[in-house]
Amino acid sequence: MAEFRAGERVRVRAVDPVGHTRVPRYVRGHRGRIVECQGRWALADECAAGVAEPRTEPVYTVAFAAADLWGEGGHEVTVDLWESYIERVQEDGA
Amino acid sequence: MSRVNDVGGQSGFGALEIEADEPPFHADWEARVFALNSVLVRNGVYRLDEFRDAVERMAPQEYLAASYYERWLHAIETLLAERGLLGDG
User: Fold this and answer.
1) Nearest CB to B9: which of A44, A49, A70?
2) Residue A77's domain is classified under what CATH number?
3) Do the interacting molecules here have an ipTM over 0.90?
């Protein structure tokens, strides 16, 4: 069961994990919009660390405004992100 | 910490060179490295994500100086050595 729905606003957690991760540095801490869920996949971070039974999570395609990421550009950038990489943005924008 | 591979959106690397009619490999050894990695992943010697991690663990100066498939070979050697499957020489 996917936690986030298409159109929801989310923020990428501003983490900087020690090992392998699939969160590009350029989206950390940034807000985006859920486009769609791509199904459940084993968490790459745990697979890379050799965890015997890595957890599986929904993976979402998240769209970001290029101008938010780099200060310019009228296009969107989409990145596929595991659920634990992102959090819901509150109604008050916090 | 962010690793040397994570350069998305970073300037200073120059334009991407788009090669017309680019072949899958530019030398036979590259095809062998590609095949070797596929066999090792499919036989469960290591996972694809462990391979990616091994590429990213390269020393930054070595990573930046290496070609794409040189990084692959470095990662394969790293993982086989760590599993005791590859010795010196």
Assistant:
1) A70
2) 2.30.30.50
3) no
Distance of CA A83 to the CA centre of its chain: 6
Interface membership of A73 toward B (CB under 8 Å):
no
In a domain, A3, yes or no: no
Chain B residues near any Cβ of chain A (below 8 Å): 1-2, 6, 8-9, 47-50, 52-53, 56
A71 within some domain:
yes
Asked if residue A93 is part of any domain, the answer here is no
What whole-number distance in Å separates Cα of residue A11 and Cα of residue A20? 20
For CA atoms A88, A31, B11, B30, the dihedral sign is positive
The pTM assigned to this predicted structure is 0.90
A4 assigned to some structural domain: no
Q: What is the pLDDT of residues A13-57, one digit of tens each?
A: 998 888 999 999 999 999 999 999 999 999 999 999 999 999 999
Query: Which amino acid appears at position B26 of this protein?
Result: H
| Residue A21 to residue A35: CA distance in whole angstroms | 21
